[in-house]
Fold each of these.
Amino acid sequence: MLKMVWRYGLAIVTVAAALVLTMLLEQYTDITILFYAAVVVSAWFGGMGPGLLAVILSGVSIDYFFVAPLYTLRLGPKPISFLVVFGVLAMLTSWMSTKRQQAEAGLRQARDELEMRVQERTKELRQANETLRERETELTHVTRVMTLGELTASIAHEVNQPLAAIVTNGNACLRWLGGATPNLPEAQRAVERIINDGYRASEVISRIRSLVKKAPPRNDAVDLNEVIIEVLALAQNEAQRNRVSLQRQLKHDLPRVRGDRVQLQQVVLNLIMNGLEAIARSKDGARELTVSSDVDQTNNVVIAVRDSGEGLDSANVDHVFDAFYTTKPEGMGMGLAISRTIIESHGGRLWAGPNSPKGAVFQFSLSTNAERAP
């Protein structure tokens, strides 16, 4: 109710203001200009009804105060035509003002609704991206655990070696101490070997735990030569089982890179395991797998895993990194896809090509001076 009173009251006030100003400025301006303005203001802020009221009040005011005979509503033919023209133009002005105001109000409403939808969509996309990152992390972890499952024999061998050495040195220590004259220096050295082997077993278990556990990504300074040595130790027994000779060509004083050590271990481990499987399927020729590290001309660290296996089909070389693409009957086709995702998240590049004279080479490069990509 109050809003309606305000709207129609606005029409009355604006027409009254136009009347007063026109009477004061009659000799300086046309009598209709300010009344048109009153109609526009009334229609713009009040709507069509107040605009029409302003048209009627303006016509009456002009007739009564400015058209002869003054102070009466009686008109001759000429003043009637003038007021009809004014009324038509005023109503048209009122209608156009109302429509424009309604159009702008509709545009504002549409803009507000669009902004709201954009905000809602942005929120949904943000949540979807967070969910996708969580799923990628879970998939990376599952793939890592599955790879370690394939290396069960190698892991058991790595742990068994220091444990067997501990038992051997323990028995030797007992013999040195159990003699008629205890040989304390030899017993001491045996105990020292036991301690060293204990540390060795602990390091193997620690490496396995770090690979298996699910932890948030880190951004540390990583020595890729150390990563390669650790992974080769885990894969040694698998290589022996497949009669593959593991070779390493590591650059001395290799610069460190920034990234997650466990994820980079996963990439190197996956490339080595793929190479061993490729060689295992090969029936003839050399059975060698070489892991090398170097620095290219742009100061990037380059890691290469070369095998003497069956090699890559030139027609499918571009698809080996696609998710779910695999040439192994028992494969999932996720190892290389995840490896490329890990390397790219570190700001690097992973690619594949033919090895000479036989097999395939998988390489990745990482910058030595760039922060890890978000």
Amino acid sequence: MALLLPRTLRALLLAGIAATAAPAIASSLPPGQPAHRTKPLPVTEIIHAGTLLAVPGEAPLTQATLVTADGKVVSVQKGFLDAAALGLPADTAVIDLSTKFVMPGFMDMHVHLTSGGAGRDNPMLKLREPEAYFTMVGYANGIDTLMAGFTTVRDLGSPGDTMFALRDAIRDGVVAGPKIVAAGQGISPTNGHADVHGLRRDLMEAQIRPGVCDGADDCRRAVRDAVKYGANVIKVHVTGGVLDESDAGTGQQFTDDELRAIVETGHMMGRKVTTHAHGKEGIDAAVRAGYDSIEHAMWADEESLKLMKQHGTWLIPTVWPISWVGDTPETVRAGPFRDLPQNSLDKLYKLGDQPKKMVRMAIRLGVKIALGTDNGIAPHGTNGREMLEYVEAGMSPMEALKTGTVNASLAGGLPDRGRLAPGMAADVVALDGNPLQKIDAVLDVNFVMRDGLVFKRDGKPTELVR
């Protein structure tokens, strides 16, 4: 790993310090006058890490120093170095994580921040409340996710512009939360998984559903609209789903021509294209069409998984919610989704523990896997449990850590994060235990830094979490 010399460090850090200066307008206020709240800005900090896994998949360092400035990693060096040794001002802040396991912030490639939380059991909210209500739901769930050590999430389905507003408010320092890669409402065929179900006809037709499309040309329009209005990633519903009320099943619902039109247009617009896919036929069709990743892949068989490996397609398995909901008819009937409509329950009973069998097979075959939870089904803030599922299915702890860091970076097309090296985002978490020895240490997050800002310290939220 390349080490920066003190002189180089000094030049970089001076630039970072200059960037953190207070806005000029604040200095023009008369003495004693209150100022408006401003965006929090990162400062130069020295982190002493007891164990540092800078790049998951590579050997960790024992006793290491990490320097951050202007929201980026400036250097990673062996030993506990002080400010003088680093060529920094004597009063440079030191964060003591000398008894902790330090690594890059976790990343979840499949969440639904506007789902779950306080309003989960009240379906009338979607008919009664404005979109802004769900932005606030997303904010609260985002805080829980950030406190669990997840500094980046990919939100793959939210109503209207709710997630775009939250993404931008977090980016601008208006509120705390993880960095968000947002899909918006997603692309669905008529009566597909993301088309509204269970309402009378006039209510369904009154809903604005810009992502619903039929025919190749209409689907190209839907993708272009999604990008126009803010989508960072294109989410497609190739097959039916388990939890919707439709009785159309979980097989392929977009035609092959429609699938090709969507992915070609998404790539033309510079976006990754991923898809919800349960049934084998839909999974295989999306892989052949060139989709970047497959979400869930519940009914993928060995042939499907080998096809994914051949095409280099990423698998986002979302196994943890299966454990939370229940993987047998008995556990489902006793669990949190026991009151679902019968159509959905029937699909859930049929699904059983198939996702766990699928991910075991994918691990054995060497399919590329990045972490995704589908949280919003399971509670937000429990994202780390997905790694426990992977280890249970046959991964080593190191491989599981890679799914939520370097693999997620590659799958999401996010090259500035997922590892700690000069120039990368200063997204840092510290754990009380060593996850390489016992993976459930990922559930005990003591410290969270995102873009050089500290949101959790000594196991508690900082003043930035309001």
Amino acid sequence: MLPLAAAVPGRRRSSESKPNGSTAVTTGAGAPKTLVDFAHALADISGKAILPYFRKPITVTNKAGVSAFDPVTAADRAAERAIRKAILARFPDHGIVGEEFAAVAGSSRYRWLIDPIDGTRAFIMGSPLWGTLLGLMDGSEPVLGLMDQPFTGERFWSDRRGARWRGPQRKARRITTRACARLGDAILTSTHPEMFRAGEEAARFDAVRARVRMTRYGGDCYGYCLLAAGYVDLVIETSLKPYDIMPLVPIIEAAGGIVTTWDGTPATDGGRIVAAGDRRVHQEALAILRGMR
């Protein structure tokens, strides 16, 4: 197993987390030296697969049939194929869970989660508010996350020294969430209000929305990264899959934020998610989402 760069802040490194010999690799000239480097290499691979399709005429397939709209394109599938091929070539014992193809169980405790284009709706309308998500789990623990936006040249990621962003100039800087003491001062974002089921779920989201300073919609994974970078205070969503949120959890946590379900449990299995840059806002929003206020 390639080493991580350093320990994830706030996470206790257990005796189980030391790499075992079965996942050791020999790195040649120019090969990635750490798992973070390898994740960057995967992001480079996915960007090259995706960009030839962006803002070009493209066929959209609806995976949901006639009952709903769940789009997928050749760009989604090409990127995930390329990522999977690279992972299996280097770590054939690692598990893989991706949005577009069947899961690979793997024989080790390490599992990659892939969303090749998180925000396919934005992608097909030419909006740049989408990204490629890559995450690595060690058992049930998320240890690495990366979001790549190849069109804008932006990349957000976590390593064991913190969370980082780099832009088109490829100069990286550390990012942190910002302080926000009360819900009334918070900026809230969510991908779309229609994602909340009518009835109690929508009512609880609306109750939070009514108390914040400002709400903006659209963004998918990009909104979570803006939270990690200190521009947004709160993200609330529902019906997320593990590959939609797990790669973002290490980024937000390393930046000083918190991500849970509406019940306050770990968010790595997806579902109803609330992310905040400040724990005080998180607790205030969580109380409303739980129906306590």
Amino acid sequence: MQPADDQQQLTPAQEITMLKQRLAAAQRMTALGELISTTTHEFNNVLMTIINYAKIGMRHKDEPTRDKAFDKILAAGNRAAKITNGILGAARNRSDDFAPTDLAKLVEDTLVLLERELSKYRISVERQIDDVPPAMINPNQIQQVLLNLLINARQALSQGGLVIVKLAHDKPTGMISLTVRDNGTGIPQEHLPRIFDPYFTTKDGPDETGKGGTGVGLATCRDIIEMHKGKIQVASTVGKGTAFTLKLPVAPTANNQPAPTVNVGIPTHSADSA
């Protein structure tokens, strides 16, 4: 009778698969940690707003001042709820399950989590959100990809600038296009074929927030999109900016009825103008 260890010995292919799964899980936890670090400062600002306006309301007895204080407290409270809901959504149900998902809401939830960071670096966000059907995705994994692309865009805009997030339905192909475009420094043409390679990076190291410089981000994004049977494409021009586009499958429907939604490929590259 063989020892238990021999019976459970993995093949090289199984070991590689297991190691990839462990790496992906570790990267998801790292992304969540970065997200919590980013939003903690914003949450503290919200609390200070609530405390300061509560003090104003207590000091002043006139109705207009108190009404203004209550309005500010309510707005700050709603803002705090959006932040905590976004973090909880990113933390819960971190499984490999796919489900019909409202991508427009996923985009909004993700932008809420990065709002303070983008504002800090004087970056404005333009939304070009079309009415699209639900996508068949793992919401947490696609949010991880979107966070990575938005952080990359922020790092390319060190002096401030514009990020455009576009969502559109490509009916002929049955895919949904999600694009993150910036007007930053751009990527040299000779680097484009390698940007999805593991550990390839054009950065000197992590920035002042501790993000970037390891080269695992875009490689992980590629792996996630491949698991979704989608595509990730990049178009970039030095001095004009970069656009990353995700192609994700539309969720199937039964009897032509809309699929219920949850809220929460092979990569190609191009040197076309962004």
